[in-house]
Every structure is written in structure tokens, then in C-alpha cells.
Amino acid sequence: MAFEKISVIGLDLAKNVFQLHAVDESGDVIIRRQLRRNQLLQFFEQLPRCLVGMEACSTSHYWARELGRLGFEVKLMPPAYVKPYVKRGKNDAADAEAICEAVTRPTMRFVPVKSSERQALLMQHKTRDLLVRQRTALINALRGHLAEFGIITSQGRLGLRAAIEALSAAQEFLPEPSWQPFEHIRKQLEELTHKIAELDRIILRWCRNEAAARRLMTIPGVGFLTAAAIAASVGDATEFKSGRQFAAWLGLTPRQNSSGGKERLGRISKQGDRTIRRLLVVGATAVVRRARLDAASFPWIARLLDRKPAKLVSVAIANKTARIAWAILRRRENYRFATA
Fold this sequence. Notes:
This protein has 340 residues and is of the alpha/beta class.
């Protein structure tokens, strides 16, 4: 049968309808068809084991694991790297054809397939971020509603405590229709705070039992949240050739617009994992704050602060921290602090 000649398959993922494009060793098209979700694995069981390319998107890691169990070699690619191979007229068939061509390129960069355990660990961080955003929205709503009745409070944790105290003190002076909405906001804030604290305890417990996370926490500016996110996202540090490549994967390297032998470096690219990048910058900001109070312990940061703005220094420290984290994961040793 013609199926026996298949050497490369491009699979365009979707929610219900998948597009498949298969070619032989010479590039001739063997299959071009649509498959429903419940037909996909049954159809692949009939095919010879070969290379399968997919875009790294929603559900891609799940399907990569399922096809890998069937014996296929599955490679995931960033969608931005596949887009240039679309000839014209974007549709599912054109996307599948582009994926089939892109996966065979020798210079293509691939996304490692995550295990279900690593995805579950990252889900804890995403859920925590969701709850934090919801809590922030409730705090802003509480402060905004109180301001409508002349009660002004500051921002931050102390401001929230002052807002709750002011709400309790002004309960009898507020109009009766506002009592219930304010109570709903207060109870929701309390519930979200407990849920976030519970997730923090779960993540911290995992960090204490994970050797890689414990080593990462020896780096200044890296707490248990950052260490857990890096350890869960980077299964094998050898996937990156250097610390700079790891920092570029996190979007912490400058965006280039160089030409004619002249280098033009702009702001950081902000590509890659947004969560880890944000945690690294927040941790670096804490290091900058500490360096301002104890310049003798961080002389190179103090010298940098004399010449550059604090936010720029924070991003530079985050970049350096990412490179140190890569080296620690690769060498499997603790951070050795140096003041020079």
C-alpha cells in the first residue's frame, strides 16, 4: 500500500478536526486528509512508524506523548518558525503542509515534549497566577468602591489591611445596599488568600524534595517559586547549548536589528516563558534593593546602579541569574557566592 512509503507527517492540531499531510522520502504527497479527534489514534495505528511534526500549541504535548507511545518520532516546533513555510492562503491543509516541510529542516529548533508530571507541576504555577490576578482585581474593586464613599487607602498589603479595617469601621455609615456587595468582596478575598497560601505550601514542599530546586534556591534572588518554575520547565539543561541560549529562550536577551556589520541592540525580546521571566525580574529587583542597602556585598551591582537606571539593572541581573541557573542545573552543584 501507499502508506508504507510514508516518511514524514505534518499534523495540524485543532479542537475537533485535525489536518494530516504525509509525504514519502522524495517529497511526493501520499496522504492529505482531515481526521476527527476520535479517529486520530486509530488512523495512526495503521501507518508505518515515521517522523511526525506538530506545532507547539494547546494539547500538542498530550498528542506528542500519545503518538510517542505508538512508536512515532514526534517533534514540536514553535508556530512562529513554521509560519514562513506557508506558501499562501492560510488554511488547515496549507498549515499541515508547512509543518511537514518545516520539521525536516536541519536548522529548525524544536520544543522538548513535556511529561504529564511536568505539566502538572506547571499547572500549579498557572493556577496560582490566576488566583493572584483575581485577588488583585478584587482589591482594586474594593479600593475603588470605598473611594466612592470618601474612604481612601494606599496600595499594597498594608493598604488592603487598612481598607478592610476602614470598611469595618464605616459599616454603619455606609448605605445599606452596599453592605452585601462589600461583604462578598471581603469573603472572596479571604478565600483567595487561603487558596494561594495552600498552593505556596504545596510548591514549597515539592522544592524541598527536589534536588535541582534546592540548588537553584542557593542563587541570590531565586526563591522557591522561581526555583520550582525553572526546575519543572527545564527537564534537562543539556537541551540548551549555553546559558545565553537559555536566557534567550526566556526572552531576556536584547532584540537585534543589525545590518551591514553594525550591531543595533534594542530592548529585551520578551519571547519565551513569561512566568519564569517575570519571577526572575522580580527576584532581581529584590537583589537591587538589597544592594542599595549593602553595597559592599554587591560591589558590581552598586557600580552598575551608578551608571544605569534601576529597572535596567534588574533586567540585567535577571539575565545573569538565568545563565547561572543553567550552569547550576547542568553541573548539578550549588551556587558559590562571589562578591567581585
